[in-house]
Fold this protein.
Amino acid sequence: MRKQWTVKAVQVGSITLDRSAMTHFKGKGERIVVPIWSAAATDGEHKVVVDTGIRDIDFYKISEPGAGQTPDQICAAAIKKAVGWNPDEVDIVINTHLHCDHSGGNAAFKNAEFYVQKTEWEEAFNPIVPEAPFYDKLCYDKHAVNFFQWHFLEGDTEILPGLRVITTPGHTRGHQSAMFDTTKGVVCVSGDICNVAENVNGNLEPNIIIQVTKTYESFKRIRQFADFILPGHEPGIEDGSEDFIPVIDA
Ligand SMILES: [Zn+2]
């Protein structure tokens, strides 16, 4: 029998931006505040964190001037508040990708095994020009995580029973999404391949992507495999919620 997971949304900061930045020019001129999401998940045995928010709010403001973070939104503190886990108790950290608002809290989880796609790891140390402002080596280099705690994945991988990652390139070439079996169906923690649920449900790309065709293929994979989605910056989900946005079959 497959393991059933519980997945909780944990807010680790916020960004103020033009709505159209997430929905391909749709909503231009409308300023909105959106959360930065991590997720805390457990099967009753393992403690898993997906994405870890911001390391240094001032550094992050270089790429996202409207960003904000309260002290209790620093990932380790936010996880403690949401599910009561101390950082040393976390078994697994999955980075959907290594942008600085998704890997910034990695260093806090000293006993965790870290999972990232090999392609993402390689590009994070050698980003192309438009991606460079979003990478901050101090989130994932030897100062943050012992090299031997990293697992470099090459494609779709089962991490534990009921927990898989699938490749969802487009936002970055090595982007992946975490898929959890839950009693309600499969929950996809999508990182930034979907900033908001409208990307997958409306088949509408976010503005920050480097591969257009791959982005739409990734949406298709999510629709194929997931019933619910926690997108990286979806404003329609409450902090601490276990209820996510239904994925609409195309
Ligand atoms: Zn990103």
User: Anything to note?
Assistant: The chain has a mean pLDDT of 95. The chain has one domain: 6-237. The two ends are 29 Å apart (CA to CA).
